[in-house]
Amino acid sequence: MQIDNRTTKILIGLGVVLLILIGRLFYVQIINENYKVDADNNSMTRELIYPPRGVIYDRNGLLLVGNSIRYDILVTPREVKAFDTLALAEALDTTADFIRARMDYYHRYRTRIGWQTLPFLKMVPQEAYMRFAEEQFLYPGFKAQVRTMREYPFNAGGNLLGYTSEVSPEYIADHPDYKAGDYYGRTGLEAAREEDLRGKKGWHIYQRDSRGRQKDPYHGGDFDVEAEPGKDIVTTIDARLQQYGQQLMAGKKGSVVAIEPSTGEILAMISSPGIDVEVLSEFGRHYDRLRQDKNKPLYNRAVSASYPPGSIFKLVNGLVGLEDGVLQPWMQYPCYNGFVYTSSGRKLGCHSHRTPLNLEEAVMMSCNGYFCYVFKSILENPEYGNTEAAYKHWREMVMSFGFGRKLESDFPSELSGNIPSADYYNRIYRKGHWRFPTIVSLSIGQGEILTTPLQIANLAAIMANRGYYYIPHVVKASEGVEIDPKYYKRQYTLVDTLQFPKVIKGMWRAVNSFNDGATANAAYVPGLNVCGKTGTAQNPHGKDNSVFICFAPMDNPKIAVAAYVENAGFGGSWACPIASLLLEKYLRGEISENRKDLERRVVNTKLIR
User: Fold this and answer.
1) Which of 23, 107, 176, 398 sits a CA distance of 20 to 30 A from 334?
2) What is the DSSP string of 530-570?
3) Of 160, 129, 147, 166, which is closest to residue 50 (Cα–Cα)?
4) What is the DSSP letter of 606?
């Protein structure tokens, strides 16, 4: 009896196990197709669908970067039959030698290649593809895959837009979601907004027979995935202003940056000499030539070049002096062709002008001596006890203007420039052994101070806003594309906004006063109330650099501009007219008749040797 019960239990247990196995098998084979898909993966082939890259517009809806259709010609060597090599070469606009070399390669490695489909010829123009398509039946094993290539309908902003290129093995190693044959944004906006612009690949899945040959769509196409186009980008750039700035900077080395002060949106960013958009779509062909060009057109000077700011930096020192209470607008200081800063008579020179001057006049005339006195007062302020403590305070104030650090723009390759630290001077001169005379050149934006043109333009925006700025940026929020909330936030300097009008009066007089030693009369435009400041930055590699910042109108400014022209001499000679012409073009749409000669002189003069 006990034996029968044990046997019954065993039989029941086996029955339960059998039912579980049957149920599981039914679920796997009938209900859940995932296992079937996994099994079928070994008998399927996937044909990629590349998405069109997102296009790029200017702030007014003008297309800056679009797409044109191209085709990759693919080949499955095992399916190729005998064909007319010369005819195929003519159809694809290539050479018979190229085709023979490729076919020899496929034959040599036929075992390794097997039934794989490989790229044969990339980015074939539509005209060539149409010739091939008409005769494709003559070339078994060959087929086409749709791709897109960048096109540039408007000649503006080659360095700004950047270029795309095919991924390298090194790039794939760092970005495993990319595969060989993919393209990515390598520089400029293409790189900065890669995640938005790239889109997502799709695919068609086909069945393969036992010999690896492609057959019908798998499962009726149910597992196919449509490609997802990249998102379109709307920039802050005014394309026509950008183009005009390029015309003004033709034949010159340097940069021009224009900002809308009320938003921080970059209206134009010119680096010269730069990349013409005509070479961007086939950049690989031109890369070596551009890389070897001694004038470095691949180098975006607007964000990646560091220069001494020169006399425009006097504005910052004046504002810090006002905030610290060591300077008052009525204070006068003498200047007899410079400032003597050592007992031995060493002198920081200045141009000839009347003396003494107050703050407003010193800004208007760009007096070196005056701002040496101001900087001396800042560093010898008894409130701080010693030079090092006063210098640390000064440096903190200066950095609040966006100098000595990255502005955190959305544009790649931005440098931080340099505002030297107290520790730096301690290493060079020993702690406690440096004073104002040691670093007197900082009074006028020389010495170890380095800035980028973007930071200089940001200073112009700060002056326009009377003490704050929005982080400069080149992308606007649009459908499907967000920008960081930080670009909407005001960034205040550590100088009270009430101090700025005291300096801006001098900027206005620099442009609008005549026969009074003003340095920026070339920027005068009747009715626009332009405010500006010239700078002449010493250059150890040749002639001085020409610098100018301006904004207009004086009240409720619409645009702030910085121009930096290498080896061009005084700030009033080239940077001043260039920046003011760009400003006038933006505000009025055209150049006044009485400034046409100035425009012609700027456009036609080539300063690059």
Assistant:
1) 398
2) -EEEEEEE--TTSSPEEEEEEEESSSS--EEEEEEETT--S
3) 147
4) -
What is the span of the domain harbouring residue 157?
A: 45-75+87-235
Q: Is residue 100 a contact partner of residue 120, using CB atoms and an 8 Å limit?
A: no
Q: Is 78 exposed, middle or buried (CB count within 10 Å of its CB: 0-12, 13-18, 19+)?
A: middle
- Specify whether 417 is located in the same domain as 566: yes
* Global pTM value: 0.87
Round to the nearest angstrom and report the end-to-end CA distance of the chain: 113
Instruction: List 121's β-bridge partners, or say none.
Output: 73
Tokens representing residue 565 in the block: 């022209």
Instruction: Check if the beta carbon of residue 231 is closer than 8 Å to that of residue 481.
Output: yes
**561 plus 447 within the same structural domain:** yes
Over its C-alpha atoms, the chain yields an Rg (Å, rounded) of: 33
Residue 452 lies in a domain: yes
Could you tell me which residues are beta bridge partners of residue 605?
Answer: none
Same domain, 250 and 195: no
Question: Is the pLDDT confidence value at 6 over 80?
Answer: no
* Rounded Cα gap, residues 29 and 19, in angstroms: 15
Peptide linkage before 557 cis (omega within 30 of 0): no
Name the CA dihedral angle for 450, 455, 456, 457, rounded to a multiple of 10 degrees. Answer: 160
Looking at the structure, do residues 258 and 191 belong to the same domain, yes or no? no
DSSP-derived letter for residue 24 is: H
Same domain? For 229 and 246 the reply is: no
Compute the distance between CA of residue 429 and CA of residue 419 in angstroms, rounded to an integer: 17
- Other beta carbons within 10 angstroms of residue 561's beta carbon come to 31
CATH at 127: 3.90.1310.10
Residue 18 falls within a domain, yes or no?
Answer: no
CA-based nearest residue to 256, from 266, 264, 265: 266
| CA distance linking residue 66 with residue 152, whole number of Å | 6
- Residue spans of alpha helices (H) in 310-407: 314-324, 359-365, 368-379, 387-399
Residue 204 lies in a domain: yes
Which has the closest alpha carbon to 362: 213, 530, 503, 555?
503
Structural domain tally of the chain? 2
Q: What are phi and psi of 368, to 5 degrees?
A: -65, -45
pLDDT tens digit string along 257-315?
A: 999 999 999 999 999 998 888 777 666 667 777 778 788 888 899 999 999 999 999 99
Which range among 129-143, 216-230, 296-310, 339-353 shows the weakest confidence by mean pLDDT? Answer: 216-230
CA distance 163 to 148: 14
The region, left, alpha or beta by phi > 0 then psi within -120 to 50, assigned to residue 325 is left
Q: Is residue 473 part of a domain?
A: yes
What CATH number is attached to the domain comprising 368?
3.40.710.10
Which of 183, 210, 235 is the endpoint of a domain? 235
pLDDT tens-digit readout, 383-440 = 999 999 999 999 999 999 999 999 999 988 899 999 999 999 999 999 999 999 999 9
